[in-house]
Amino acid sequence: MPVATLLPFTTTPNRKSASPTSFRLTEKFILLLVFSAFITLCFGAIFFLPDSSKLLSGVFFHSSAVETNTRTNPESNSDSGSAANSNNDEKPGDHGRNLHMDFGDQSQNEEGRQDDDALFDIRKLVMMKHAWDSYRRYAWGSNELRPVSKQGHSSNLFGDIKGATIVDALDTLYIMEMFEEFDVATDWVEKNLDFNMNAEVSVFEVNIRFVGGLLSAYYLSGKEVFRRKAVELGEKLLPAFKTPTGIPWALLNLKSGIGRNWPWASGGSSILAEYGTLHLEFMHLSKLSGNPDFAQKVMNIRKVLNRLDKPQGLYPNYLNPNSGQWGQHHVSVGGLGDSFYEYLLKAWLMSDKTDEEGKKLYYDALQAIETNLMRKSSSGLTYIAEWKGGLLEHKMGHLTCFAGGMIALGADGAPTDKTGHQMELAAELARTCHESYARTALKLGPEAFRFDGGVEAIATRQNEKYFILRPEVIETYMYMWRFTHDPKYREWGWEAVQALEQHCKVEGGYSGLRDVYAASPSHDDVQQSFYLAETLKYLFLLFSDDDHLPFEHWVFNTEAHPLPILRRDKTDRPNEVE
Ligand code: DMJ
């Protein structure tokens, strides 16, 4: 079947032709005259019209918006795959219809914008461009960039897999209409992204960044290569589930299929936030491959958890995959626990609200968290503490700050009378996380902050004072902005932009900071791939109209990769994979 018929996104079929055209001498002369007249006219307009900066902003934005609408070239979706034959009504690339509406008049001041932030519309692209161009220039093909020493960097989370920044950034490039960069990245994926290696990877990290990034790129662009690579990688991860309980290992050798757990994890346990953050991607993998194994594996994780007693209704972070018993009773909505809760809610939303079990598990877990972990400081800041065998540690991680956004996202579906209350909790958490930024010298938040020993929302230990370009606080601002349109969320986002530009931006990209309380920045020399996947994407969405990636159509995985909601219809019920 011709691809064009599969992808109805075809109102303007071709992007600008790249083919050279030749002219005779007289024609060249006439063209030169016309061109000079046009240039003169443009300069006149720029210098004599009342506000030339706004005009420039409009020119940049409307031209890129026009380019978006030409992103329907059937050639760019040149190979069709089995997904195109799926019986889902919506086809990959169709999803672009729900991606971009219009930038609107960027020269006008909207609610919540700073006076000078007509320029922000340019800056959001400039930030992404600087991050991307620097990676491309100094670290192309490596997993991440070292922006100070201007070289590549790779953490052992990805084994020998290369290009984490490329795959993590694909959808951000697409959403920001940076199509030339997107095409270069696509070309790299086609030619270089390889999973055939004798190396050990983190199943969780590879899933959220690589599988998630490839799935989003597929749904946005319709390019078959992304579907194919996502399924290929998903298949490589399946041996991780070969344990007596089916709870997967944390680490897996992609060649031998041998798995193991982190040596530091309580008695050889698997980690809640790792095995509990596969659901969204694996449901899509079953859908796109026709292979029910992926869905069965993640539904089995649910079954194992359902059989276990939960202390006070809480989920400990450690679970032994051999015995199926909890390890140490440490509960956290930050590191080790966080995205498990996020995926319960999003499993329900992504199933078009058919996954009633996911829904119940989420709201029950949230109730237990509220009762046992949420507290208010003496000055009235709400925070989520950590729970260790029944005792509270009054510490909240930067990672935990995603919870404001999650609770806001779930508030609408909350059990009777709880919607307003949950929105209040979400707003309070957003405020606390903002305070954790505002109370530092560099106006970016620490890795963890405490509410004890006379301090509130401040890091007291040296090893908790760093900032690694994490997205969670901005993620929560974005959700809160979408649901309330309270201008303070854009103001807070703008403060973060200014701090990032002032303290994290270096000539070779953006760097994390060693101590946010120090008077001047000390750079850690890493531009994390999630900075491009999440931080810059959430900033972009915070300052975009709500119809950019609307929540009625998209659910973000924990790495901010948008996945379409799996629509129910008579023939195709998303959670009923045989
Ligand atoms: C990301 O990789 C994901 O958001 C994950 O869930 C938690 N940590 C980082 C960003 O901080």
From TrEMBL:
GO terms for biological process: carbohydrate metabolic process. The keyword Membrane applies. Disulfide bonds join C401-C433. It is an enzyme of class 3 (hydrolase). It catalyses: N(4)-(alpha-D-Man-(1->2)-alpha-D-Man-(1->2)-alpha-D-Man-(1->3)-[alpha-D-Man-(1->3)-[alpha-D-Man-(1->2)-alpha-D-Man-(1->6)]-alpha-D-Man-(1->6)]-beta-D-Man-(1->4)-beta-D-GlcNAc-(1->4)-beta-D-GlcNAc)-L-asparaginyl-[protein] (N-glucan mannose isomer 8A1,2,3B1,3) + 3 H2O = N(4)-(alpha-D-Man-(1->3)-[alpha-D-Man-(1->3)-[alpha-D-Man-(1->6)]-alpha-D-Man-(1->6)]-beta-D-Man-(1->4)-beta-D-GlcNAc-(1->4)-beta-D-GlcNAc)-L-asparaginyl-[protein] (N-glucan mannose isomer 5A1,2) + 3 beta-D-mannose; N(4)-(alpha-D-Man-(1->2)-alpha-D-Man-(1->2)-alpha-D-Man-(1->3)-[alpha-D-Man-(1->2)-alpha-D-Man-(1->3)-[alpha-D-Man-(1->2)-alpha-D-Man-(1->6)]-alpha-D-Man-(1->6)]-beta-D-Man-(1->4)-beta-D-GlcNAc-(1->4)-beta-D-GlcNAc)-L-asparaginyl-[protein] (N-glucan mannose isomer 9A1,2,3B1,2,3) + 4 H2O = N(4)-(alpha-D-Man-(1->3)-[alpha-D-Man-(1->3)-[alpha-D-Man-(1->6)]-alpha-D-Man-(1->6)]-beta-D-Man-(1->4)-beta-D-GlcNAc-(1->4)-beta-D-GlcNAc)-L-asparaginyl-[protein] (N-glucan mannose isomer 5A1,2) + 4 beta-D-mannose. Residues 76-87 have a biased composition (Low complexity). GO terms for cellular component: endoplasmic reticulum; extracellular exosome; Golgi membrane. Ca(2+) binds at T558. The chain crosses the membrane at residues 29-49. Residues 69-114 are annotated as: Disordered. Its cofactor is Ca(2+). It is found in: Endomembrane system. Its EC number is 3.2.1.-. The active site is at E205, D338, E447, E472. Pathway: Protein modification; protein glycosylation. It holds the Pfam family Glyco_hydro_47. Its main location: membrane. Residues 88-103 have a biased composition (Basic and acidic residues). It is a single-pass type II membrane protein. Keywords: Calcium, Disulfide bond, Glycosidase, Hydrolase, Membrane, Metal-binding, Signal-anchor, Transmembrane, Transmembrane helix. GO terms for molecular function: calcium ion binding; mannosyl-oligosaccharide 1,2-alpha-mannosidase activity. Belongs to the glycosyl hydrolase 47 family. Involved in the maturation of Asn-linked oligosaccharides. Progressively trim alpha-1,2-linked mannose residues from Man(9)GlcNAc(2) to produce Man(5)GlcNAc(2). PANTHER family: MANNOSYL-OLIGOSACCHARIDE 1,2-ALPHA-MANNOSIDASE IA (PTHR11742:SF31), MANNOSYL-OLIGOSACCHARIDE ALPHA-1,2-MANNOSIDASE-RELATED (PTHR11742). This is alpha-1,2-Mannosidase.
